[in-house]
Amino acid sequence: MTTPTLFDQTPAAGLRPSPAAVTQRPLVIALDVAMGTTGVAGVGWTDHVHATAKGQHERFAFQLEGCASFYRHADFVVIEGAAYSKNNQGADALAAMRWMVRHDLWKRSIPYAVITPSKRITYATGTTVHYDETGARIKGDALKGMVRSAVAERYGIETEGKWRYDEADAYVLLAMAYDHLGLPLADVPPTHSRAIAGCDWSEFTRAVTR
């Protein structure tokens, strides 16, 4: 976990123009939602919500309350969605948990965006497909490690501990949201930033322009 720090609310000089209605950096919170441990990120810090209860309803309640404690005052929230290449779009517990968070955000009138894992990986590393020196495809924890390393190198955020990958994933989501708003947290090559165009930012856009 990294410690929250104060930051300048005024966009730094040299950043590309932001949407007309954005005059200062809004509060964005990013969530890599899970039933067990949800990674959470804000500018300059990461954290997590870890549910230890064994009962499904208790875990739902703990995760939802824990996530809300971070985003209740947010201007925008960005959430990691499902990997559409996998057959996990049914009424499983994780899908239910994600929808509970989204419904709670809707009730609070907090605009949110949902980003797929493939878009997050592209933004962090430039591609979703990686191979080692033998030509074998890199996946699993090795790929998660690449994302974590990218977060450390580009943003100076060192995620540590058992939940380091969840927190690093959340920070990439955070960076994508600010980049979309025209307030990037760091310079990102076009090979990486192309991932933003494939995401649905409609709620963010409505909130900024209204």
Give your account of this protein's structure.
- This protein has 210 residues and is an alpha/beta fold.
- It has one domain (28-209): Nucleotidyltransferase, domain 5, CATH 3.30.420.
- Helix content is 40%, strand content 14%.
- The protein has helices at residues 56-71, 93-107, 117-125, 141-155, 164-180, 190-193, 202-209; strands at 28-32, 37-42, 45-50, 76-80, 112-115, 130-131, 137-138.
- Strands 3-2-1-4-5 form a five-stranded mixed β-sheet, with helices on both faces. Strands 6-7 form a two-stranded antiparallel sheet.
- α3 (117-125) packs across α5 (164-180) and α4 packs across α5.
- The longest helix has 17 residues, at 164-180.
- It is globular and about 45 Å long.
- Residues 3-21 and 87-91 have low confidence and may be disordered.
What attributes characterize this protein structure?
single chain; 5-stranded mixed β-sheet; 210 residues; Nucleotidyltransferase, domain 5; alpha/beta; two-stranded antiparallel ribbon
